[in-house]
Amino acid sequence: MVKLSGISICSLLLLTAMVSSLRVRREAKAPIYHAASAKDRVKNEYIVKLKDDITQKELNKLHEHFAKVSKEKGVKIDLHKNIETVMKAFTAELSEAAVEELRWLDEVEYVEEDEEFQLDYTLPVGLDRIDQDELPLDGNYRSMFGYGTGVNVFVMDTGILFEHNQFGGRAFPFTDQIGDGLDGSDCHGHGTHVAGIIGGNSVGVANDVTLYSARTFDCYGRQGTAARLIAAIDAIGAGIKPNSLLSMSISGGKNIAVNEALDRLSATTGIIIITAAGNKARDACLNTPPSAQSVITVGATTADDEFASYSNYGSCVDILAPGSGIYSAHSKSPNAYTKKSGSSMACPHVTGAAAILRSINSSYTVDDIRSILLDSAGKNLIDMSVIPEEHRATTPNILLRLPEPWRKDGLCGSDNPNVLGEDGQCDWFGDNSCCMGDHICASCHDGCSTDCTDYTRICTNTCTWPFDDYCDDGGPGSSYNLCEYGTDCADCDDRTPMSG
Questions:
Q1: What band does 141 get if pLDDT is binned at 50, 70 and 90?
Q2: Are 300 and 278 contacting, i.e. CB atoms less than 8 angstroms apart?
């Protein structure tokens, strides 16, 4: 490993020679970006962003010169990681003198100080809240579009306790940037809690997803530097899995390199990136990842439908979700649980919802997912008075609500205008309960006509499968009321077609 600390004049001359032996010397030094907060800066650690057109030959020559300086002059230049997939860069420990010389290299686009990121939590009503419009809670959770089958979710966090009972063999290591031999396993608890909300068997939004640990924080919730985040993002880009999401319940000061890496990962792989707004009670646009262009950013709400006092706010927030007092898995043992609060807990609720949508259609882009989530969300339900007045209007009062087949959210077939009598065909599995105006179409699986205007059955007398919720249990001549799963729908006999 290479360390540029205590560089002598002789070493600087050699570095200058290194500069002249590569490309031409710049007319002006490459910019250097400082950590958003001095207390979060990692001393002598840097991210060196190289120009996109640098050739492999030039990159090899650059590294050869570093090695030569280290070997011949006893100067260590610690090259931690090469970033190759999402962008051309490397992370290193460098002295100030070395940084100044590197900034004269034509190959260098910019240099940025490394900085510490933090986990977003302050110490499961969530599931109950996101499948209904308004309070009070009904004590139930169900998704009408399944639970994320076939979707892969990378969890960038403290790791995952793979053997926890909530994951049932669906959680695996992927990349570990800490290097303490734990191979993605969680010794802190935050990552396991987040993964549980995303895909736990009984505490998760989408309990059929496959979870992958992208560990970037240690056992104390620290060491989550920008360099480690970029290295993990690069690893995900290099080993991307089909139909993937990335959940990031983390935040730090605004970091150009991390934002660029995320935006490039999204653009090149199509991965959907969901991130926490942060817990500083300030404008989320001052933070990374929320300030990245390609992410869906989630602010937190309380059990009383109030905007959480700790949550970041502002125009970089896309949607809100429950974040206070959320019950989920813990890493202490395979059967351990705890409650936590923070935008870290809000973020995985939206990740789970996005996974459900991606399981319906793997070609959905981040714009598609954002649009569907916003269309189906609850509007103006949250008390936003805790937000400073100057930011209240720019913060969306939009609460996560799982899309449902009878809601007018564009999910009932690409050419279905959701009007009774017009294109009432069941185009895909979700159409067997799609909305025809304000009415419910018959279940296509149950022997009815595929034309939603000409069905003869709704369900059998007992609700024995999810779509039987739409039984008419209100007696003769009643409108279509919801029947609870497993209960007797006494009035669910053969029906005549609805009109209007």
A1: confident
A2: no
Average pLDDT over every residue of 102-106: 88
Q: How far is CA 321 from the centre of its chain?
A: 13
* Each residue's pLDDT tens digit, 237-247: 999 999 999 99
Structure tokens at 117: 């990121």
pLDDT tens, position by position, 315-341: 999 999 999 999 999 999 999 999 999
What is the per-residue pLDDT across 470-494, written as a single tens digit (0 to 9) for each? 443 333 333 333 344 344 444 343 3
- Report pLDDT digits (tens) over 108-129: 999 999 999 987 755 478 888 8
Give the closest residue to 111 by CA, choosing from 53, 49, 51. 49
Distance CA 62, CA 44 (A): 20
Which residue, 60, 136, 145, is CA-closest to 304? Answer: 136
- Which pair of structure tokens corresponds to residue 227? 């360099």
State how far the alpha carbon of 157 is from the alpha carbons of 119, 204, 357, 381, in Å.
8, 17, 23, 31
Q: Rounded CA gap, 119 and 219, in Å?
A: 12
Q: How many CA atoms lie within 13 A of 460 on its CB side?
A: 9
E strand map for 51-193: 78-83, 89-93, 108-115, 118-119, 152-157, 171-176
Displacement of CA 406 from its chain's centroid (Å): 27
Q: What is the pTM of this model?
A: 0.74
Q: Which residues are catalytic?
A: 157, 190, 344
SS3 at position 320:
strand
Beta-carbon contacts of 260 under 8 Å, excluding residues fewer than 6 positions away, are: 49, 86, 87
Model pLDDT, residue 83: 93
pLDDT of 221 > 50? The answer is yes
Q: Which amino acid is at 36?
A: A
One-character DSSP codes across 364-394: --HHHHHHHHHHHSEES-SB-TTS-HHHHTT
Which string of b and e fits 475-490 if b means at least 16 CB within 10 Å?
A: eeeeebeebeeeeebe
Amino acid identity of residue 108, one-letter, is V
**β strands within 108-237, DSSP E:** 108-115, 118-119, 152-157, 171-176, 210-215
**pLDDT at 19 > cutoff 50:** no
Q: How far apart are CA 393 and CA 383, in angstroms?
A: 13
Peptide bond into 289 cis (omega under 30): yes
Could you report the per-residue pLDDT of 401-440, keeping only the tens digit for each?
987 643 333 333 333 333 223 333 333 333 333 333 333 3
- With beta carbons less than 8 A apart as the criterion, state whether 258 and 33 touch: no
How many other β-carbons are positioned within 10 Å of the β-carbon of residue 228? 28
Q: Which of 259, 226, 32 is nearest to 116 (CA)?
A: 226
Report d(CA 197, CA 81) in Å as an integer.
32
d(CA 455, CA 476): 18
